[in-house]
Amino acid sequence: MRTRRTLLISVSASALVATAATGGLAVVATASPAPTATGTIEVSTAAELKSALAGASPGDTIHLADGTYTGNFKTSTAASSGSRITLTGSSKAVLTAGGGYGLHLNGASYWTVKGITVTGGQKGIMIDSAKSVVVDTVTVHGLDMEGVHFRKSSTDGVIKGSRIYDTGNDGRGMGEGVYVGSAGGVSDKSDNVQILNNTIGPDVGGEAIDLKEGTTGGKVTGNTFDGKGLTGNNYDDSWIDVKGNNYVIENNTGKNTTNNGYETHSQQSGWGCGTVFRGNRSTLSGATGDKQLAINVTNFSGSCRTTVYASNTVTGGKGLTNITVTP
């Protein structure tokens, strides 16, 4: 009589366990995510997502099935300009954190995050020391503090086509929709960040967009702002606060604000300069509307200029701006 034997074979490339027995071979999949032949890693659980983020390689796509992914998710793997890493799913693929960062890209240059929802944490998507990160058509909401933050000299980033609302729920006025740079110095060179065609608000506790001193050369265009829910804490009383240099703010639409629509400030000497405002449409109706400006420039001189074009328009409030308008 022959002795029956069972053999377990680990196949790392496909994360399968094969069971060989007398009379045949049975193959059983484990819980680990498996890349397909095209480099797409399909995941459907929080454990699989953490594994995929840790093990991703340039050129990979991590695809999230619809569902809830509970935890704090992070990666420090960098891709390259010619071989990006993509994390993608529908808006029904929801990263839900109980605090901390929902998704942290720490040194993870050349990533694209597309389609998913991030909610429930202290901060939504945090991008640190990472070049050319693209955040595309995501939904970010239900946070204690800011929604999406480009920080620690994260240059050439893009956030586009996304929706951010219901932030700043801890009441400290730290609920900016999109935050670029760091406060308190000029060492954070998160330069050339583009903020394009997003919907930010309502119930965003800070500014829709805060552009910090030390950052340069970004572009804010085609966005829609609803300031309903601004707390007014820490002077959070406008849709955009520009403290960096040489930004272009154009073709945005805003309504509901506790003070002005757009503001520039010089928090550090030589900063808050060179901003261009063009084609923005502001609605300043409300109980305090007779005191508001669409564009309030707090520091204007020969060495620190701001340009406000006549293509900007305003309804309600005190007027368009407090400086001479350029035809």
Automatic annotation (TrEMBL):
Keyword Signal: yes
Ranges for domain Right handed beta helix: 102-226
Pfam families attached to this UniProt entry: Beta_helix
Positions in coiled-coil regions: none
Signal peptide residue numbers: 1-20
Keywords: Signal
Annotated protein name in UniProt: Right-handed parallel beta-helix repeat-containing protein
Source organism of this protein record: Streptomyces durmitorensis
Lineage of producing organism: Bacteria, Bacillati, Actinomycetota, Actinomycetes, Kitasatosporales
